[in-house]
TrEMBL record, chains A, B:
Keywords: DNA-binding. This is MerR family transcriptional regulator. It holds the Pfam family MerR_1. InterPro entries: DNA-bd_dom_put_sf, MerR-type_HTH_dom, MerR_fam. PANTHER family: HTH-TYPE TRANSCRIPTIONAL REGULATOR ADHR, REDOX-CYCLING DRUG-SENSING TRANSCRIPTIONAL ACTIVATOR SOXR. The keyword DNA-binding applies. Residues 1-70 form the HTH merR-type domain. The keyword Zinc does not apply. SUPFAM superfamilies: Putative DNA-binding domain (SSF46955).
C-alpha cells in the first residue's frame, strides 16, 4: 500500500508516519520509484504498537526507540522484551531519601523474597508498592503480610492468566502490544470491576 | 486540647483548621473561654478523614461536605454512606455520545446483570469499565466475558475481603476513612503487585 493508505488505515497523518521513519521507529517502505514506496501489514502493525506506546503507555520517543530495538533484535528473549516494555511504562515514582521510604522499600524487598518471586531489583513496581506502603502508614493504616494476602493472590491469578494468553509464535510486535494492553488497560478494567464488586459486597453485607 | 495541639497532631495549619470549621466540615470545639475552645480525639479523627478525602480522593470541598453530612446523619445506613463516598471519588470519565460508547456501556450493564451484582445504575465504575472496553476495541483487543472471568474473580475476592475487614461498631468516620483507603490506596497496591506478579510469571514462562 502507499503511504496515504497507511495513513488512512492507521489514523496517523503522513507527517507523523514520516517522523517515525526519520526517528528509526518504523522501517522505510520498499522503493518502487524515486518518489513512491510500498508499505505492508507489518508497517501497519508497527504503527499501531508505536501509537499504543505513546497513547496508553505515555512513553517518550527515546523509550519507544528502545522497545522497538528490542522487538527487532531476535537475540532478545521474550522475558527480556517484556521487562524492557514494563520497566519503560513505569510508573516511576519519587524515591525520597528518608527513613520511612527506606523501611517501606525494605519491606517490599522482603515480601518479594518471601513470595519467591523472580523480579529484578530495579523493577519500578517495587518502588510503586513502597510508595503505597508509606502512604498507608502515614494515614494510620499500616500494612501487614496478612492484609496483603488476598491482593497477592488476586494479582498472581490475573498475571498468570495474562501470561498464558501470550502465544509463543505470535509476531513479537503483537506480543509487546498485547502485554502493554494487559498492563495498562486491563488494570483499568480490574479497577472498575473492583469498585463494582465493592458496591455489591457492601449491598450484601449492609443491605441495599 | 487547644487548636495549636490539634494543628501539631494533624499536621494542618491553624488557618486550614479554621477554614474547615467555617465550611462546616469540622464541628466547633467546646468554648472554654471567650477566646479558647477545647478539641478532642474526634476532631483529630475527623481532620484526618477530611485530609484523606482531599489528598487521596482528590475531592473538592463540596463533595467532602456531602460525605461528612452523611457521616453525621445516623439515618444514613452504612451501605448508602459507602455509595456516597465511592461515587464522589469517581473517577468520572467522559461519556461521549457515540455508538461505540453506547454499545460498550450496554455490555457493561449486561455483564453486571449476568453477574447478579447489586450496583446502582449511576455507579461511576460502570462508565470507567465502558471506557476501557471502548479503548480495547479501538486497539483491536475486543473483550469477551471469558477474558474477563479472572478479573471478575480477582475483583470479587478482594472486595469481599475488604468488606469483611469493616467492623460494624467502629466509628463511622473511621469506617469511611478505611473504605477510602481500600478504594484508592489498596488499588495502587494491587496494581504494583500485578506488575511484580507479571514479571515473575514471565520469568517462569519464558525463562530469566
Amino acid at each position: 500500500m502507499q503511504i496515504s493508505e497507511l495513513s488512512d488505515r492507521s489514523g496517523l497523518t503522513v507527517q507523523t508516519i514520516k517522523f517515525y521513519i526519520r526517528e528509526g521507529l518504523l522501517p522505510k517502505g520498499s522503493a518502487v520509484s524515486a518518489t513512491r514506496s510500498e508499505y505492508d501489514e507489518r508497517h501497519l502493525e508497527r504503527l499501531r504498537l508505536i501509537n499504543a506506546l505513546r497513547d496508553i503507555g505515555d512513553l517518550p520517543v527515546a523509550a519507544i526507540q528502545q522497545i522497538i530495538a528490542s522487538v527487532d533484535d531476535p537475540s532478545v528473549g521474550l522475558h527480556e522484551l517484556f521487562g524492557t516494555t514494563q520497566y519503560a511504562i513505569g510508573p516511576h515514582v519519587e524515591r525520597p531519601d528518608d527513613p520511612h521510604w527506606r523501611a517501606a522499600r525494605e519491606d517490599v524487598d522482603a515480601l518479594v523474597r518471601e513470595l519467591g518471586w523472580k523480579v529484578g531489583g530495579g523493577a519500578p513496581a517495587r518502588d510503586l508498592l513502597a510508595h503505597s506502603f508509606v502512604a498507608l502508614r502515614r494515614l494510620g493504616f499500616p500494612i501487614t503480610l496478612t492484609d496483603l494476602r488476598p491482593y497477592v493472590r488476586a494479582a498472581t491469578e490475573v498475571a498468570e492468566h495474562e501470561l498464558r494468553r501470550v502465544s509463543d509464535d505470535a509476531p513479537r510486535t503483537r506480543t509487546v502490544h498485547s502485554l502493554l494492553v494487559s498492563t495498562v488497560l486491563y488494570e483499568q478494567v480490574l479497577t472498575a470491576l473492583h469498585r463494582l464488586a465493592q458496591e455489591d459486597a457492601s449491598a450484601r453485607r449492609f443491605g441495599a
